Amino acid sequence: MKGISEVLGSTLLLAVGVSVAGVYSTFASDLSQSTGNQVAGETRSDIKCTSASMDVRGLNYDSSPSNVQLSVVNTGTVDLKGVSVFAINDTAEPINSTEISLLDTSESIDVVLKSRTKPAYVTAAIDECPSIQPREEF
pTM higher than 0.70 for the full model? Predict the structure, then answer.
């Protein structure tokens, strides 16, 4: 029985091994880079959230124009992006909401929400730090 020579077989085996290693190294490099970027982003977010704090103050309901008036205050040491303020009724459903694109450090923004009925409470949330949700009840 005849086959290929040992030299040719070894060369082909080495060529296949190098090709597989090349494909794997490209895949491994891309995977490690994307995973590293994801971990770095989550770490930056976690660090920012430890310095973030917000408060809802001065809650007032005025029935004649049907408005809820309040102030949202950044009490932390970092600027907050994507702040949402919600008026919530007795059954825990949102009545109305508004967005604040940027709340600088120590900044206070007055907010007016339309509401036909007096809400049970008002809460706020930050897109970057979902664990921070100050709440003020009537």
Answer: no
